[in-house]
Design brief:
16 helices; alpha+beta
């Protein structure tokens, strides 16, 4: 079921993104903030909410929240903390300390790669809950044999970033989440690892007739943990609501769960309102009033953000529109520095971007990295014709796994460029073996150039340079 292309309807989407902050300790206590530790080992009376324990605000968490607000062009204001009361097994205190009507960051915006600007309502600080695991029955509470609770995550600092309802498609929602993740990583505020739960997305989805100005009834889809799930869930939910309305029914405001296996949203509970949480000021914390000089210093410490890094890549390219997707992918994966360094050292920027977007991205290990000098040297070998594209990719794969010197790796593998005579002979042999195909190429079927290049590459076991083969074909063609 998909809402894409549904005539006469408009989708309205707003996202609430929770990101765990990269602090050493939790938000209100000294327990370690770490993913994957033995369950219930990073806990203390404060994060378990035991009687007599008192919260102490983590300064590093506040600084990271200011980083996020600055990167999202928010106004950074004095703020207060509240208790949000609700009762889940993974909430040891039976309330969550969060920011309610006076959040630290308000009124910002985020620009998508296509230039669209999405409003950011607020980005406030709060503590995370623990994690419940339902064992058996497909992992859902209703059919589970039993449930386990790990409180290691309880009290981990979060920033919740709430967008305006400015998104109009599932693709826009995905682009927003991807761009926001890149910003969070670039600021050093979060690692953005959706697979580990350090970035989680809730999507508020409604539909309205095309041309309508008032919003429809929204439903919230909770805890989407991948970009793929986000786009599928939003499309399904919009189509579900359209089908209800067109069938004469009404959409009920509620919270829904995304079932990845079934590819559908399911009712979780009726949508809560602020009154249901009985918010009141946290009595054990004073208002948070960051010094303006500190705010300015934090903002100045942020390095180039994704939009500026995309612009830097685009400035290196002769035809940026042709490689727009590669530019976005390389920046999103934090690999653009390799292209910038290589181009600055004289390597062809287009070739550098292509290799990074394809081969490097597929085999890159952040722990091992890739020596920019070695990468630049390899690009020079390929662009000069000393290595064919196939050979260069083979050498690059070894650089990504073991490192080393590209020339030495190529020599050890027996790679060498074909001489001009050998290349010409290989091209001539391919042409002579397929006179009918050659005549079609001569008559203007340009697609057949790729056919001949492939044939020559096979005949030379990858030693031929594709550009040189094309040049020889053009020479023979006259």
């Amino acid at each position: 079921m998909s809402a894409a292309g549904t005539d006469g309807w408009e989708m309205v989407v707003g996202l609430e993104v929770h990101c765990e902050l990269l602090t050493v300790t939790k938000l209100f206590c000294g327990c370690k903030n770490a993913f994957g530790d033995e369950p219930n080992t990073n806990i203390c009376p404060t994060c378990l909410g035991l009687p007599g324990s008192l919260p102490v605000l983590n300064r590093q968490a506040v600084e990271l929240a200011i980083r996020i607000g600055s990167a999202l062009h928010c106004a950074i204001r004095p703020s207060t903390f509240h208790r949000k009361n609700y009762f889940y097994p993974d909430m040891p205190k039976d309330y969550q300390i969060t920011q309610y009507d006076e959040p630290i960051n308000v009124g910002g915006w985020l620009e998508l790669p296509d230039g669209a600007r999405i409003g950011v309502t607020r980005a406030h600080i709060e503590e995370d809950t623990g994690k419940t695991t339902h064992v058996g029955g497909g992992g859902r509470i209703g059919s589970a044999d039993y449930s386990l609770v790990d409180y290691n995550r309880a009290g981990v600092p979060l920033v919740e970033i709430v967008s305006e309802p400015d998104l109009r498609s599932a693709a826009d929602a995905r682009a927003y989440a991807a761009e926001l993740r890149s910003i969070l990583v670039a600021t050093g505020a979060s690692d953005g690892r959706m697979e580990e739960g350090s970035m989680r997305v809730d999507a508020n989805v409604s539909v309205r007739r095309a041309g309508a100005t008032s919003f429809g009834t929204r439903c919230e889809i909770k805890n989407l943990n991948s970009l793929r799930s986000l786009i599928r869930a939003v499309d399904f939910e919009a189509a579900r609501q359209i089908a209800l309305i067109e069938d004469g029914q009404t959409v009920t405001q509620e919270t829904r769960h995304w079932d990845e296996a079934a590819g559908r949203t399911l009712t979780m509970r009726s949508k809560e309102e602020a009154d249901d949480y009985r918010y009141f000021r946290e009595p054990d914390l004073v208002p948070l009033v960051p010094d303006p000089a500190w705010i300015e210093a934090v903002a100045q410490s942020i390095g180039p953000l994704p939009a500026a890094r995309r612009a830097a890549l685009v400035a290196l390219l002769d035809d940026p529109a042709a490689q727009r997707e590669q530019v976005n992918a390389v920046v999103n994966q934090d690999l653009d520095h390799l292209v910038v360094i290589a181009a600055g050292a004289g390597a062809p920027a287009e070739l550098a971007l292509t290799r990074v977007a394809n081969e490097v991205a597929a085999g890159y290990d952040p722990a091992r990295g890739l020596d920019p000098k070695a990468f630049t040297s390899l690009l020079s070998l390929e662009s000069s014709g000393a290595l064919s594209a196939t050979q260069a990719k083979t050498v690059l794969a070894e650089l990504l796994t073991t490192g080393g010197d590209p020339e030495q790796i190529a020599r050890a593998k027996g790679f060498e460029a074909l001489s001009e005579d050998s290349l010409a002979a290989a091209v001539a042999a391919s042409v002579e073996a397929q006179p009918d195909v050659w005549q079609r190429f001569v008559d203007g079927d340009e697609k057949l150039a790729g056919h001949f290049i492939s044939e020559v590459m096979k005949a030379t076991k990858g030693k031929a340079n594709g550009a040189a083969v094309r040049a020889e074909l053009d020479r023979l063609k006259g």
